[in-house]
Design brief:
By secondary structure, this protein is an alpha/beta fold. Helix content is about 50%, strand content about 10%. Helix 7 links the parallel strand 5 (about 155) and strand 6.
Length: about 250
């Protein structure tokens, strides 16, 4: 979809450039503003696949639960216990510095059948404005730490906040990473109650959903059993990504 939008805009820009001598300054300004808006929207909405291709729906049609920002020494073990009890596997996108601080949890995640991906070294909220060398350090260092702890060459990656741009796209391509997005954003970081969190996720879950949660949050750990039960009650099954998809 992002590629199509880009092509259409470039064609429109070429036409506008060709007739620029006939355009008023106001029209040129509006075209420039439109271009900036398109670039911003492409950066902030991962599902558009504007700068890079990411997986937002599981091809196997099974629901995938994913967790960002761990491992957390308190809540990640609770979540792992729940997943084991419910016989559900998930995907954990780890922050490098936290993985380094909690290597035993990283090993536990992998040993219990879950997948691991990188989520940058420091989860810099301004990564979308950083240089290529900085972005390369953030992404590669995290992937290397995961590999050093587990011996597992993690090729899955999720950008912080889902933000993408040409630099992030280029680094991911050079590192041959598989980008994982989401189709259900839980907003658990803003959830004021377990009940509302459960209701939102269960309501939005459908066949092939990739659900975004955060294993650093106690509310998420508390809500997880009901989220799993609610999705099961809808007749949906949980699973991981098929090999050909990643």
């Amino acid at each position: 979809m992002g590629f199509k939008i880009t092509v259409v805009f470039y064609i429109a820009s070429a036409i506008a450039l060709a007739i620029s001598d006939y355009l008023e300054p106001k029209s040129i300004f509006l075209l420039t503003l439109l271009y900036a808006v398109i670039l911003a929207v492409g950066s902030l909405i991962p599902r558009l696949n504007f700068y890079l291709k990411a997986l937002h729906v599981n091809p196997s049609r099974k629901v995938v639960i994913t967790f960002d920002d761990g491992p957390d020494p308190i809540n990640t073990p609770k979540i792992l216990s729940i997943l084991k009890d419910k016989d559900v596997n998930a995907v954990f996108f780890l922050i490098g510095k936290k993985a380094l601080q909690n290597p035993e949890i990283v090993d536990q995640i992998l040993s219990e059948g879950h997948l691991i991906g990188g989520h940058t070294q420091n989860h810099d909220e301004f990564i979308g404005f950083r240089s290529k060398s900085y972005v390369m350090y953030e992404i590669k260092t995290c992937q290397d730490i995961i590999a050093s702890i587990t011996g597992y060459d993690a090729t899955l990656f999720r950008p912080p906040f889902g933000v993408t741009n040409p630099i992030i796209a280029k680094v991911c391509k050079e590192l041959e990473l598989n980008i994982i997005g989401w189709s259900v954003r839980s907003f658990d970081t803003l959830a004021k109650s377990k009940k509302r969190l459960v209701s939102r996720v269960v309501k939005k879950a459908h066949s092939g959903s990739i659900i975004l949660l955060h294993d650093r949050l106690s509310t998420t750990a508390e809500a997880l059993p009901d989220i799993i039960d609610g999705i099961h009650d809808k007749g949906l099954k949980f699973g991981l990504f098929p090999d050909h998809a990643i």
